# Entry
Amino acid sequence: MSAGGKRVRVVTMGCSKNRVDSEHLLIQLAAAGWEVSPEEVPLEEAGVDVLIINTCGFILDAKEESVDAILEAVDAKKNGIISRLYVMGCLSQRYPGELPAEIPEVDGFFGAFSIGPLLKVLGVRPDPALETRRFLTTPAHYAYLKISEGCDRKCSYCAIPGIRGPHMSVPEEKLLDEAAYLVDKGVKELIVIAQDTTFYGLDLYGERRLGHLLNRLTDIRGIEWIRLLYSYPASFPRDVLDIMASSPKICKYLDIPLQHSADPVLKAMRRSIDARATRELVEDFRRRVPGIVLRTTMMVGHPGEGEKEFENLLDFVNEYRFERLGAFAYSEEDGTWGAQNLKDAVPESVKQERLDELMELQAAISLRYNESRIGTVERVLVDSRDSAGRTCTGRTSMEAPEVDGEVVIECPDGVALPETGSFVDVRITGADEYDLNAEML
# Structure
């Protein structure tokens, strides 16, 4: 334990949106004199007084992972490794009564919007001047910018609206102030996130203002890359494509979960878009932004997906050959429209077989795409370095951190190993289905 009892660690589970919440909490604690313990140091060696777990409660696997982390922390408390344990975030927002009853060893549970009450328990008065400030837990050269909270969509399988509430945009001026602060701290890549980034501005300005916001972000000196994640296909704002095609700062990269390609499944999912419009959208992306890299997510086993619909999905993925694709099997989530109105009729074994088949197809597509880049010269942002092995790892504008592959760069003897956060030009020399190999130029 620390001498003053004021060393804290925040463990963030789930998505990057949770990470932003953790960073807003940590800046308040740090400003109040708390010492922040980095997550990479083993807990038993860190001398942590207070451990805070920011949980995810989206789907079954995420919930189980969060619960496991809480139980491990309970053991750490029993063994005297930490003094106090608090839980915040989506899981405790979703199960405010059940969790305290099941895990009474936790000193306090706080919801997804309870930073203020948690700070009060820790004896910290929130400083309004720090509203747009963050304690970065990512490498110093990239950061996430959360532009809105909540979601107005009514997808059948999704618990997020029930956890995070309706869509609420962050005012543009606050976002620009936060972005400028991050750049002053050394951030070169800004990753724009929300539950649905395409909805940005509707509640505040009466219109979709994502494109306008992106344009204003490009005016901030010091930003090199701006990356867009978590977009929704229905009513996608097409002006964003024009900005992406014309601005050298906007990465030609888009994360847009499509979830399926067959009309019966899309209708059952309540996705507000049909198969024809989905195909037209993807074709529009390819046509208007040449060279765009598309990351998408698909779901298998949703009610309404028979063998015919699954084959439709395989054909769709094979036809449009997304550079990046993740997938997961449907799980019936309590409180969702699907759990209340649809029958989860696809056996778990069949869901897993379909998931394996889809990802096997995507592995071949990803490998072919990566191999097509061998011999090209690309600009890489260095994320980490290994001085002993004379290698460093990084990403091009076509890879997002944490979810995509890396570029492993060999640095010849006599050539200085590039610093973390620097940009270097490399030649791609090899590829597998996930990562790339390269040599310094």
Observations:
- Residues 348-371 form the longest helix (24 residues).
- The CA atoms of residues 57 and 91 lie 4 Å apart.
- The chain has a mean pLDDT of 95.
- The chain has 16 helices and 18 strands.
